[in-house]
């Protein structure tokens, strides 16, 4: 298994999990671009948000985004899905960036 986020979901790197539910997990980005920079990642592998079609998976993912935003931001945040290499995606396992506070 060479997908970095599948390995994190499987607990192989000992990444600190900030929040989780049945469908998704959340952890800090290793290279933060804002004061708060958290990744929300479906447990099940898909390559981009556009390929994530199961309603239960989508609901679980966005429920965890809401939980992370309410716990770790002041309620103001940006939600970003880089989808495709040309648009800046570097890890091809669907993930939402939750960003809050412009400066690192
Ligand atoms: P993308 O550019 O694909 O939208 O975002 C991938 C993000 O994953 C990047 O912001 C990068 O810093 C982060 N990242 C890559 N590898 C790791 C890792 O092993 N652990 C964590 N916590 N974040 C990672
Ligand atoms: Zn994966």
What is the strand and helix layout of this fold?
Elements: H1 4-9, E1 19-20, E2 24-28, E3 36-42, H2 55-72, E4 78-80, E5 96-100
Antiparallel strand pairs: 1-2, 2-3, 3-5, 4-5
Guanosine-5'-monophosphate binds at residues 4, 15, 27-31, 39, 82, 88-91.
Provide structural commentary.
The mean pLDDT is 96. The chain has one domain: HIT-like (HIT family, subunit A), CATH 3.30.428. By secondary structure, it is an alpha+beta fold. It has two helices and five strands, in the order αβββαββ. It has helices at 4-9, 55-72, and strands at 19-20, 24-28, 36-42, 78-80, 96-100. The radius of gyration is 13 Å and the shape is globular. Strand 2 and strand 3 form a beta hairpin. The protein has a five-stranded antiparallel β-sheet with strand order 1-2-3-5-4, with helices on one face. The chain is 23% helix and 21% strand. Bound molecules: guanosine-5'-monophosphate and zinc ion. Zinc ion binds at residues 3, 5-6, 45, 93.
């Amino acid at each position: 298994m060479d997908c970095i986020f599948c390995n994190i979901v499987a607990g192989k790197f000992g990444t600190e999990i900030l929040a989780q539910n049945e469908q998704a997990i959340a952890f800090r980005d290793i290279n933060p671009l804002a004061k708060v920079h958290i990744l929300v990642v479906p447990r099940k592998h898909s390559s981009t948000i556009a390929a994530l079609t199961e309603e239960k998976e989508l609901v679980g993912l966005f429920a965890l985004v809401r939980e992370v935003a309410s716990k770790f931001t002041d309620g103001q945040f940006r939600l970003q899905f880089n989808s495709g290499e040309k648009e800046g995606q570097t890890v091809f396992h669907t993930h939402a960036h939750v960003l809050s506070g412009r400066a690192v």
